[in-house]
Amino acid sequence: MKFNKISRKVLAYACATAMVFSSVSAYQVLQVSAYEESDYTTIGDDKTVTVGDWTLYAGKWGSNTGEMAYAGSTVDDLSLKVISSDGNSGCWKLQAKHTVTGLTKDTTYDLKLKVKASQAGTLYEKIETPEVIKTGIEIKEGENEVTVQFKATSESTGMVLELSGIPSGTVLDFGGITCTEATEIETTTEQQADAEGYYSSAKGKWTTSLPWQVFTVGSMKYKGTATKNAVTADFKFLEAGGGDWNTQARVPADKQVFGPLEASGDGVNYKVKVAYTSTATFGANLQLNGANNDVTFEEGTHELNLDYVSKADYPVIFMNLGNAVANSQLTFTMTFTKDGETEPTTESTETTTEAVETTTEAAETTTESTETTTEAAETTTESTETTTEAVETTTEAAETTTEKQEPVEITMDQEFNADGDRELGGYTIYVGQSWNGSTAVAGVDAEDADHIKVQQKTSNWGQAWGLQVKKEFSGLVPGAKYSISWKINAESNDGKVLVTNNEAQIALVGGEQVLTGEFTATESGTGEFVVGMGWVGLTNPIEFFAPEITKISDPETTTENTETTTEAPETTKAQEETTTKSAETTTAKTATTAKTATTTTVAPTTTAPATTVAPAKVTVKKVAIKKATKKKSAKKASIVLKKVSGVAGYQVKVSTSKKFAKKTTVTVNAKSVKVTVKKLKANKTYYVKARAYKKVSGSKVYGKWSKVIKIANK
User: Fold this and answer.
1) DSSP secondary structure letters along 577-641
2) What are the mean pLDDT values of the chain's consecutive 10-residue runs (714 residues total)?
3) What's phi and psi for 668, nearest 5 deg?
4) Residue 17 confidence (pLDDT)
5) What is the pLDDT of residue 670?
6) Whole-angstrom distance, CA of residue 581 vs CA of residue 569
7) What is the 3-state secondary structure (H, E, C) of 185-248?
8) Measured between alpha carbons, how far is 136 from 203 in angstroms, rounded to an integer?
């Protein structure tokens, strides 16, 4: 076929135009990235994966689902392709997380993210601790830089990108994250109630006006009160809720503005009545300390009746109000009544300001527990001697507590990547990497082996028991039942935990809370209590403190045993002295002894005041250092201690500071008198001290520190 000159020009123009449009079309799908289609790995079906510097999530959140693929893994080289998204920004079905480290507490930072997009869309950016959420960030086609400001509360925090508002088919290339100290601080005005007493929400951020904390992507006003058994709320929704979990309200447990309720490991049954008035009908989810209740608030005045099993003194009340209707109002009173009791009379409600002041006073009262205990001791009807002992005991406890008042930063320098158990301080950590995808990092307080910090790094979220923190106890009464109170401190409310002998999911509150439960001692007088962390967020470390246990019941005995004791009470005293001697007598006496031995085995003589004697003061001898050497150029030191009989182990501290300043000190716990201390620096002068410890009821009792000596350089 032949073309004339004009035809050839037209054809050339058409070809050039086609190439341009082809290039634009390809750019929309792939050309922001250097990766080929085959380089991408798809994730979806409610999965979480950790790749290099990133943790990625795609899947279900409420009624929303999503799917995406990734290539690359570093902070400045990650490419994400959104395969499926309905564009519902803020539903958190597509997430990319990165942990920012090297921060200085109480310093304000500007975090900047560079991203190149093949199509325009909307994303959210969240700093996990402290919780700062920047919503509705418009991403244009091409180069973008996103900035968020936050004040650091620890050495690290998680940054989460919510990508559900990015259209299907979009490719995002991340070109790096920088975090620098802010030169201009964004200021906010302290929230004030309006003339009607309502507080206003902040779009995309949590606001607190106790007893309620509120988050919404829209706009609402709120107020409420709390007493021991009841919570009230008045919510005005100025805009629609925005979909599942895009509007939330909660009464936090750590503020202790509501409660305490009666609670136990097995749970105390309560009836919960929600008397409400709503100007519109909408569905919601009401969580009472992690127990889900799907409810419908119907237009008009109605009542909801729910069952609640109380296992925490101060429960978390959490509400998913994402389906709230614009320009509607919901008011309610939520009353908790223990089964078998009448509904408490509604007390006069306090204003929000008074609730805040009450919380502060409660905190002050806590710090003055010694005085309160002393007053309680003085008001009892016990003898003067008993009162004196109680006061002395309280004083010792106060001295012990004083050592731990200041917050301690724990370096999480130990990785747990392989299946099985491993000791950490006074605990055992278990990871099930092969079956639950769980791995973790953790660290122990150099001053207190019962104070540890654990953070889950990967998980497929299958079971809570994929990551476990175990505490073992010894010296217990065989067969006796014990209750436990275990204080923890989670950095955020991201996740839930399970505990021994309790199937209820316990929601984290983002702060200090106490886990409670029960267990029975084995025949050998040991016991174990476990916390399952497999459902805890990957950027939410949890601190564990020394748990407290209390015997709540003696071993069960049968009627047959009692009868046997009655028949032969005279043999008990002889056998207390020795059973072996009786066995060495004549044949006739041997027969009697055999019968007597049976009687002694089943007799409930051990239920007597043995536990009264147990709290006797435990003494631990002072240890001496025999030898301490280090090669000048080496990074480890060899310490030899003088053996102390009857102890479980030794704690050794090595430091460049004679006063053993925390930042320059390395602490080692050892069972042997020969100790090697590593992670030291070459060409430095070091000092060492040591102390011995015994284990009593699962806790360590320390002796006095040895004399501080200078480590000899070879």
Assistant:
1) H-SHHHHTS-HHHHHHHHHHHHHHHHSGGGGSTHHHHTTSPP--PPP-EEEEEE-TT-S-EEEEE
2) 48 46 38 78 83 85 73 89 76 86 89 92 82 78 91 88 88 91 70 86 82 90 92 95 86 84 88 96 90 91 93 89 94 93 53 35 36 36 36 35 54 89 91 86 89 91 87 88 92 89 86 91 88 91 92 66 38 37 35 34 33 51 92 89 90 87 76 88 90 78 89 84
3) -130, 135
4) 45
5) 82
6) 19
7) CCCCCCCCCCCCCCEECEECEEEEECCEEEEECCCEEEEEEECCCEEEEEEEECCCCCCCCCEE
8) 10
pLDDT of res. 663: 64
Cβ neighbours of 254 (radius 10 Å): 16
Pair (433, 379) in one structural domain: no
Amino acid (1-letter code) at residue 24: V
Contact 475, 482 (CB under 8 A): no
CATH code assigned at 319: 2.60.120
Cis bond before residue 211 (omega within 30° of 0): yes
CA 316 to chain CA centroid, Å, is 14
Q: Based on the fold, state whether residues 575 and 638 are members of the same structural domain.
A: no
Number of domains in the chain: 7
Q: At how many degrees (to 10) do helices 559-567 and 587-602 cross?
A: 140
* Residue-range definition of the domain harbouring residue 528: 414-553
The SS3 assignment for 652 reads: strand
Rounded CA-CA distance 394/397 in Å is 5
First to last CA, the chain: 94
Token couple for 570: 């005279």
Helices within 3-68 (DSSP H only): 5-26
Is 319 in the same domain as 391?
A: no
Bin 462: left if φ > 0, else alpha if -120 < ψ < 50, else beta: alpha
Are the C-beta atoms of 700 and 620 separated by less than 8 Å? no
Residue 552 near residue 518 (C-beta atoms within 8 A): yes
Helix (H) or strand (E) holding 285: strand 282-288
Shared-domain flag, residues 46 and 168: yes
Give dist(CA 112, CA 437) in Å, integer. 31
- The strand pairing partners of 208, in sequence order, are 213
Q: How far apart are CA 110 and CA 179, in angstroms?
A: 6
Residues 518 and 423 grouped into a single domain: yes
Report pLDDT for 245: 78
Q: Smallest Cα–Cα separation from 218: which of 298, 95, 324?
A: 324
Please name the residues in contact with 278: beta carbons below 8 A apart, sequence gap of 6 or more.
297, 298, 299, 300, 302, 328, 329, 330, 331
Q: Are residues 207 and 87 part of one domain? A: no
List, in order, residues 6 or more apart from 443 with CB less than 8 Å away.
410, 411, 412, 413, 414, 452, 453
Q: Has this prediction a pTM greater than 0.70?
A: no
- The reply to whether 206 and 344 lie within a common domain is yes
Question: 52 in a domain, yes or no?
Answer: yes
Which residue reads 């490419």 in tokens? 79
Assess whether 475 and 568 both reside in one domain.
Answer: no
